[in-house]
Amino acid sequence: MKNTEVLEERITAQGCTEHLSAVEDAIYVIGGKWKLKIIIVLQENGNIRFNELQRNIPGISARVLSNELKDLELNGFVKRVVHAEQTPVVVEYISTDYSRTLQPVIMALSNWGKTHKRNIREDAF
């Protein structure tokens, strides 16, 4: 596999440090096993209740999902909506406009993942 991407400008030591810092910040916020999966499910389903969200993400425990949702809410990716006027009280989670700014990143990761899997299969066999 050859790299066909051409860098338009030379990255300086300071630029490299800035890029590394920015990537580190992004990974801190959306990294881990579950955060991007949660964001993707929320973007695909719109308003969704906790149990339905858990069913859509195989293997995640209620405790982990709860903690991840709190982190995502603190960072502006998820909005928790409580419908207290209903009995029983209904709580829904929705993706925010800010979380939708991740769509190009998610699509790029998806495309890269597909290419990587294809390259691994071709090289392995």
Give a quick set of tags describing it.
125 residues; mainly alpha; Arc Repressor Mutant, subunit A; 3-stranded antiparallel beta sheet; 59% helix; globular
The H-level CATH homologous superfamily, spelled out, is Winged helix-like DNA-binding domain superfamily/Winged helix DNA-binding domain
Major beta sheet summary: 3 strands, antiparallel
- Average pLDDT confidence is 89
The CATH architecture can be named as Orthogonal Bundle
* Tally of individual domains: 1
What's a quick, concise take on this entry?
This protein has 125 residues and is mainly alpha-helical.
Explain how this protein is built.
It comes from Chryseobacterium taichungense. Residues 16-121 form the HTH hxlR-type domain. This is DNA-binding transcriptional regulator, HxlR family. This protein has helices spanning 13-30, 35-45, 50-55, 62-74, 97-100, 103-124, and strands spanning 48-49, 78-83, 90-95. The chain has 125 residues and is mostly helical. It has a single domain (33-124), classed as Winged helix-like DNA-binding domain superfamily/Winged helix DNA-binding domain (Arc Repressor Mutant, subunit A), CATH 1.10.10. The chain has a 3-stranded antiparallel sheet. The longest helix is centred in the C-terminal third of the chain and has 22 residues, at 103-124. The radius of gyration is 19 Å and the shape is globular. The two termini are 15 Å apart. The model has no long low-confidence stretch (mean pLDDT 89).
